[in-house]
TrEMBL record:
Chain sites annotated for binding AMP: 189-193, 217
HAMAP family: NADHX_dehydratase
Protein name: ADP-dependent (S)-NAD(P)H-hydrate dehydratase
UniProt-listed Enzyme Commission number(s): 4.2.1.136
Binding site for (6S)-NADPHX: 40, 101, 153, 218
Protein's organism: Lapidilactobacillus achengensis
InterPro entries membership: Carbohydrate_kinase_pred_CS, CARKD, Ribokinase-like
Family: Belongs to the NnrD/CARKD family.
Amino acid sequence: MIDLTERILRQVIQPRPVESHKGTFGRVLVVAGNEQYGGAGIMSASAALFAGAGLVTLASAAVNRTALHARHPEIMFLDWTETAALRKSIQSADVIVVGPGLGLDPGAQALLRMVFTAVNAAQTLIVDGSALTLVAGGAIPFPQQPQLILTPHQEEWHRLSGLTIAGQTVRANQTALAQLPETTILVLKQHRTQIYADQQVYRNTTGVAAMATGGMGDTLTGIIAAFCAQFGQNKKPLPATLAAVYLHGLAGQELAVDHYVTLPSQICAQLPLLMARFSRAGL
Ligand SMILES: NC(=O)C1=CN([C@@H]2O[C@H](COP(=O)(O)OP(=O)(O)OC[C@H]3O[C@@H](n4cnc5c(N)ncnc54)[C@H](OP(=O)(O)O)[C@@H]3O)[C@@H](O)[C@H]2O)[C@@H](O)CC1
Ligand SMILES: Nc1ncnc2c1ncn2[C@@H]1O[C@H](COP(=O)(O)OP(=O)(O)O)[C@@H](O)[C@H]1O
Ligand SMILES: [Mg+2]
């Protein structure tokens, strides 16, 4: 087990090239947030925006449009029942997040099937929340083509792998991961999140109990997405993922010095400050 340190941030977060534009920093599409869990989609997309993705689109239940734009007009919005437009949006994305607040009803199942069918081998697909629970149900297999990043909490991993929380040992987790598409990265969230990839296991050393608030995992998906979009090119999604997990915890930890609880929106606001600090450290 390799403990993550600040070094991963200096290694991954680079000063922005002078000759650049929004397209340089990647296109993230977030498919998330039904009528009940609209906040999940908004938090994931907001985190992608604050973590530096060049263009962010949220595909969600139509009712979430105004709430999103009242907070962040920078994020584009798509009604996820507009299937042709959604398919087009999937095709032009570099990184897709699917699942936070998606729900488990037949509409959510159809949407998940559609996303899994439309993604291609050049893309990164981050699967979280309800989407993991739906796959665990057995009727919708993970796609083989894209780079998969799964971000279950321990109960979601229980549903997916069949391993009880007490049975989630390193060896058992590695064996379960070997049943999934070959290059899958597993981010197994808990108070000290573990990341499994390439036969290796990493342990996050940041994060505090002040972060135990609904929406904190939704927020992590957006940070991973933005990091893969900006820094995960040339088939290097693993360092980008490790840095995103570390940064998410560090933001919460620093806030917790004088905040008893830390909200996802506060974590987002910290991200550009921390990224500036660590990109300069690399100079
Ligand atoms: N504002 C919004 O829109 C929000 C929308 N959300 C969306 O809601 C959907 C459902 O997601 P969900 O995570 O809330 O529920 P579910 O999948 O039933 O899992 C909970 C069960 O797992 C257990 N558990 C065990 N270990 C655990 C661990 N380490 N971390 C966490 N849980 C752990 C836990 O144990 P217990 O609390 O009982 O001790 C409980 O029995 C999903 O799409 C999500 O994206 C949320 O993000 C919230 C904000
Ligand atoms: N006590 C804790 N210490 C450190 N990190 C925590 C703690 N509680 C929660 N977190 C972090 O918050 C996130 C929770 O994810 P998740 O349960 O999926 O939340 P949600 O679905 O509500 O967005 C994970 O990244 C987890 O590591
Ligand atoms: Mg979650």
